[in-house]
Amino acid sequence: MLDLAPEAAGRPRQGHDAFDLFESANAAGAALSPILITQKYNSGIFGGMPRAGQVRVEPGRRLSDRVALGVLTATFPRQLVDEVIDATGRREKRTRLLPAHLTVYYVLAMTLFSSSGYEEVMRSLTEGLAWTSDGEDEYELPSQVAITKARARLGQEPLALLFERACVPLATPATKGAFYRKWRVVSMDGTTIDAADTPANAEVLGRAGTGRGDGSAFPQLRIVALGECGTHAVIAAVMDSYAVVEQTLAKRLVPALQPGMLCLADRGFTAHPLMSAAAKTGADLLWRAKGNAVLPVLERHADGSFRSELVASDDKRRRVDVLSVRVIEYAINDPGRLGATDTKYRLISTILDPTAAPAAELAALYAERWEIESIFDELKTHQRGPRVVLRSRTPEGVYQEAWGYLCVHYALRALIHGAAHENDLDPDRISFTTALHAARRSIRTGLSETVNLTSALRRATGELLHGLLPKRRLRANARVVRRKMSNYNVKRAQHRNWPTPGIPIGSAIRVLSPP
Q1: N or C: at which end does the chain have fewer Cβ atoms within 10 angstroms?
Q2: For residue range 311-340, what is the model confidence (pLDDT) as tens digits?
């Protein structure tokens, strides 16, 4: 908030000046300006001659006109941000100095600087502008309350639509590891993200169950995503409360599948209704079968696979919707893969022609399904931070923040893919954390007349190519947790206002004499 009264600045209050607008905005509970140009009202910085007491900012010099997202602006240009704001009806009704497009950029920056407070995130957005102006401009940051109100006005819809329009498949046929024969390889899976422990979040999002019956420590948001295996770009996602199971969310994700894709998925998704709906999109599928799935052998193929079918449990007699599939059964003989010992794997594929995709190749390709787990690791461990919960205290804010995380993760992966494509590299050779740090530095540096987007991208690409990762080695990990459940009770609402000590510890001591 502005702390400079007009009388203190020696200016009379006449007409509808900036301070009248300040007070009326305060009365309406609106977010206030994130910018205060230094007191140079007669210095020529502002075009024309303002009325007494009025401040006119030269077009293009408002903070909202100059803030960008560093190299990530290549993925989310101002024009696209404006389009999604207009499409969702979130354009501000009057001129604000914290307008909707600036709030979108702020939410994206908030998910990039996940360990920083609200005001520190805004400092990161404006830091480069202060440096490039050589101290000519001073920017007063909005308060946390003003930012919170701006986020509430924006809602989740613009971020969700921004993800839908910008986050499209990245890989080209030249992208190493992105295609199997003619198919773009994608993987589908689900994950959960911890949200702030507030009554509103707990009521709407829900908690995971525990063996002790009191629920998880934090409310959780469930996400099911579709990711490109070769680029690690999340190209589609749906999210809902924890109570909505992954299979239900997957049904909403199915329309994202397209002809020319080969979708990999774990056995948790393999059921006739979902698999049949996914097959009807024109995409091909390679999903692991459940252990109790009944798969009759209808025709054996020379590569060891066989033709079979999936029928819904309530359609056994009428057989109206029968899905023809091909089954590949295999085992893994490797002493270095302890988890695969004595395990028989069964894969179900809609690629019925064994010459188009031999069984051994599909069995080896299925290991690419784990790339979606690496995507979730990048998102939850490196970008968000380990054991960090979403900061939003309302369900609407949680959804908004989650879409922001997905958008920024995609932009980082687009940056990596661009550098790899230009230098004929496998995207796996470029470090995600290096891209994360380069993006953060580019935002702090800012974009200006001297540091434009092209030069910023060139600088970031140079950072990404310095110190490439070695080719990925063979690896396997035990499926264990590092830390077991604590013996302490879970923190709940009744523990927030815990009694405060009333006297110093020295005065509270009472030495007990032996009986």
Answers
A1: C
A2: 887 777 778 788 999 999 998 887 777 766
C-beta neighbour count of 346 within 10 angstroms: 18
Over the Cα atoms of the chain, what is R_g? 28
Q: Which of 71, 154, 3, 34 is closest to 415 using CA atoms?
A: 71
Dmax over CA atoms of the chain, in Å, equals: 92
d(CA 124, CA 442): 10
Residues 6+ apart with CB under 8 A from 161: 84, 87, 88
Query: What is the end-to-end Cα distance of the chain in Å, rounded?
Result: 64
Q: Give the model's pLDDT for residue 490.
A: 66
* Torsion sign, CA atoms 313, 318, 321, 326: positive
**Cα gap 346→480, rounded to integer Å:** 24
Please say whether the dihedral angle defined by the alpha carbons of residues 413, 419, 423 and 428, taken in this order, is positive or negative: negative
Averaged pLDDT for residues 54-68 = 55
- In the block, tokens 């030069």 appear at 455
> Whose structure tokens read 């080209």?
172
Q: In the numeric block, which tokens belong to residue 380?
A: 């939850």
Q: Kindly tell me the sign of the dihedral angle through the C-alpha atoms of 37, 40, 43, 44.
A: positive
With b meaning 16 or more CB within 10 Å and e meaning fewer, what string describes 326-341?
Answer: bbbebeeeeeeeeeee
Report how far residue 325's alpha carbon sits from residue 275's, in angstroms, rounded to the nearest whole number.
Answer: 10
The highest-level CATH class for domain 170-377 is: alpha beta
Q: In whole angstroms, give the CA distance from residue 367 to residue 177.
A: 13
Q: Where are the alpha helices (DSSP H) in 188-292?
A: 199-205, 246-253, 272-279
Quote the CA–CA distance of 114 and 431 in Å, as a whole number. 19
What lies within 8 Å, CB to CB, of 416 at 6+ separation is 231, 232, 427, 430, 432, 435, 464
Enumerate the domain spans of the chain.
Answer: 18-162, 170-377
> Which parts of 125-272 are beta strand (E)?
179-180, 183-194, 220-228, 234-241, 261-265
pLDDT at 43 exceeding the cut of 60: no
